[in-house]
Amino acid sequence: MKKIMAVTAVLVIMFAITMNKETRAQDTALKLAVVNMQTILNKSEAGVAAVKMLKALAEKETKALQEKQKALKKLETEFEKQRIVSKPAVLEKKEREIIRARRELELSKEDTRRNVQRTQARETQRVVNEVRKLLAEYAKINGYTMVLEKNDNASPIGSAVLFADPTLDITADIVQLYNKQYRQGSLGPRR
Whole-model pTM? Predict the structure, then answer.
């Protein structure tokens, strides 16, 4: 999937560069910029706040799971103590309780994992959508024809942008603008 996106991005760039001569003659010079979305997610105040919120959620969920784990341990300990002196019917009932508690714990773990992943995806998408709107406005105001995403992380397929002159990178400007809007309260959930 990433390969297809990379190839598509390269084709779009090639198309933009080789636009017909009539279009170029109409004084529409190609003005490019690059931006690193991962840097924006990691360094913007909204991104940092989202990470902080996710950590708090994960800690809360972990504490709840630890309580369930303690309750299960307590049941298992009681079972082991009663194993010698209790009747088989009582032991069987206690064993069913332990099995049910284990299942509930596993289900809770899975629910917690899914909940945290869903929340992370939702918050990331919110920030990305806000940044995209901001980028569109910024590009329009500053006369950019195209803004491409660059990725500094090593990936098996690389990035659609293999090289860009550092002067084309507007990431710092976008982080600064995004932080300003975030502080003014004109964006999604706050700290």
Answer: 0.70
DSSP SS3 for 177: helix
3-class secondary-structure state, position 60: helix
Mean per-residue pLDDT for 118-147? 94
191 has a pLDDT exceeding 50: no
Residues composing the chain: 191
* Cβ atoms within 10 Å of 150's Cβ, excluding its own: 20
Q: Which residues contact 135 (CB under 8 A, 6 or more apart)?
A: 35, 147, 174
Quick one: DSSP state of residue 146?
E
The alpha-helical segments, DSSP class H, found in 19-87 are: 21-25, 37-43, 45-82
User: CA-CA distances (angstroms) from residue 64 to 7, 60, 72, 108, 163?
Assistant: 46, 6, 13, 9, 47
CA distance 16 to 55: 42
Average pLDDT score, the chain: 84
Query: Is the pLDDT assigned to residue 49 strictly greater than 80?
Result: yes
